Amino acid sequence: MARREVTGRGPSVTAAPRVELASGPPLPNEKTSAPPVEPKRVKRAVLPPVRGPPIAPMAYSIRQFCEAHNISVDTYFRMQRVGFGPVTMKVGGRTLISVEAAAAWRREREAETSTRTVAAE
């Protein structure tokens, strides 16, 4: 049996009718939340660096020496074990190679290469 037949009344409506929202621009009387406004960025002048010309190194670390001479760190240590490496100096806890020692090492390598090629001929 349906409710109407028992009580004589129809079902009561307790919820508000459902309103479908239409897409599109908001109505003039409709309240909307404004999107958050970001503060304007202040443009700052780009100043040239205060530095002068780069300072030439007086000594290389092992890694810098290897990068400057295009050899790997493993090759450097292998040459040091054999006795073909450059002269090093200890400064505090660091091992450094002076620019003069690097130049002398290059001259030795060039001289050895030239004597090998003369002996091979």
Task: Kindly summarize this structure in a few lines.
This protein has helices at 3-7, 62-68, 73-82, 99-120; strands at 59-61, 89-91, 94-98.
Could you list some keywords that capture this structure?
single chain, 121 residues, alpha+beta, 4 helices, 3 strands, 9% strand
Descriptive notes:
The protein is α+β, with helices and mostly antiparallel strands and 121 residues long. It has a domain at 59-120. It is built from four helices and three strands; from the N terminus they run αβααββα. Strands 1-3-2 form a three-stranded antiparallel β-sheet. The mean pLDDT is 81.
Order of strands, widest sheet: 1-3-2
Largest sheet: 3 strands, antiparallel
- Radius of gyration, in Å, reads 42 Å
What's the count of strands? 3
Query: In percent, how helical is the residue content?
Result: 25-40%
Structural class: alpha+beta
Average pLDDT, rounded to a whole number, is 81
The succession of helices and strands, N to C, reads HEHHEEH
Distance between the termini: 119 Å
Strand portion, in percent?
5-15%
User: Which term fits the overall shape?
Assistant: elongated
Low-confidence stretches: none
* Count of discrete alpha- or pi-helical segments spanning 4 or more residues: 4
